[in-house]
Amino acid sequence: MKESAFAGDMNVALAQGPTAVLAKPERGPGRLESSAYRMAQWLRSPRPYLMLIGFALFLGFWYLTVEVWKLPRFSQMPGPTAVITEWINPDPIYGLSLYSPEYYQHIWVSTRRVLIAFLLATATGVPLGLLLGWSLRFKEYVFPVFELLRPIPPLAWVPLAIIMFHGSETPIIFLTFLASFYATTLNTMLGVESIDVSFVRAAYCLGAKRRQVFWHVIVPGAMPFIFTGLQISVGVAWFSLVAGEMVSGQYGLGYLINTSYTMVQYPTMVIGMITLGIVGYVTSAAVRVLGNYLMQWRARELAMGAEA
Amino acid sequence: MNYEPPRGSPIADARAPALAAQGGCKGAIRIANVVKIYGSEGAGVRAVDDCTFHVPAGKITVVVGPSGCGKTTLLNAIAGFHSITSGTIHLDDALLCGPGRPKADPGPDRIVVFQNGALFPWKTIVENVAFGPIVQGRLSRKAAFEKARMMLAETGLHNLETNYPGEISSGMRRRVEIARALMNDPKVLLLDEPYRALDSLTKSVMHEALLETFDRNRVTIFFITHDLEEAIFLGHHVVIMTTRPCRPKKILTVDIPHPRDYSVLTAKRFREYLDETVEAVHEEALKAFAAGERER
Questions:
Q1: Is residue B199 part of a domain?
Q2: Is residue B100 included in any domain, yes or no?
């Protein structure tokens, strides 16, 4: 398993190495072209098939424990066939499947909340993290408070959020925002602190002013950490969103899961869970793709085997 | 071992009043009685002690000493990264740091090339090279890029313009870094063991490239190393430092004409210089080893 993954990486490295080093076209190979090429490489490597086997094993385990062996712990749990038939049923037993517009309403409402919270967290967390890492004095004021607030779980904020904000939408967005905000801020700060002091010194040597050092060195230098933070951030956003939605609201995947539970519509509950998994994966993959797009230098460096 | 500077040596020159720049070249550095103590006075570590010497303009001065002897401290003081405790450092006639002004301001007249390299990994090679004039507002973006391309072409690096530093070899990165420094017409290049991480074959290529650059630009070079052969091969003057606290122990004027190439390494003259100095360096290395000093 390990070996084959390694071989796959080697293939990619070997394939990219010569083009990157020897033949030097104006701006590297076209982005589309190279991603199509990478896709072909990926399909030729054992990785996608191992992935499929992993999914098959998981589904098989689920099927056997619930539907074949009927193990005691799993007696109430819907099996994969029940869930999948309900999911793709044009006329669902419990009223929700791929064919019901309500299903997409739930997805859309949740995604919208996550996006708003994520964007708010990014818009506030990144600047705050940059300042925390950049100015020691600012950090001394703010960081202790930050560290004290951070361990308070979003669920503990629920009552206060309901008191503070009107309606059901803003409290949920606030709760979703919180965890994202901490992850983004902390990673951004660590990103600034991770920057080699030589880069800052070099910039001053070359005549940069403090402001220019900030924009030309601190911001791009922290970028890899910022994007790691944003990926974590979007993950924990879903995490606390569901907590919020289970408490209040009339739509959303968390709400769907919770109401299906109270109404004993277990297949629908599992459909909600799987959908969360998929949507959550898609959002964090989108953040990763955006990060790679914005940090060409890093993607290319890693493709070279990261000598530096 | 107490070294008394003979008259006319770089040390004596440094003690003389303001020295006019030699032969039109600018960038003479006078280091006089510099002391640097890390931590509190009294309890602190004395890294540099009463250090006095002169870096003549338009020449290569190489400072040799064992790792951790305090030579980087000296470079950091000239560059303006660290303060000094007492003494003065002048660049030509301007005071860089001294009484009442413990820390110099870093600026494009003295550019450092770092031990581990400091090309910005998030900028392409040409963006890196054009960085100085752009942030100083000396050239427009377009003009700076044009000059950067010329600069790279001069060093034979023009085909790397759109690469990122992470994609090229570490030897190439050093050359780009020197080109980035020279873009600003600095008075002094401060090189802090720039070839330390390179293998010896790459190193020899880099040495010749550096000498070639020097012959073209005649910029004052202040070069730090712990490699004596490198020092004698490159330098007009070699300053051998004592280990912690750091001060000149022996100053050698290498009377081998520039431009030099690799045939120098086997010349009798070169071997004689090496014989003359190897013991002094070795003595300090032993002391440093015994003291267990680490690079700082």
A1: yes
A2: yes
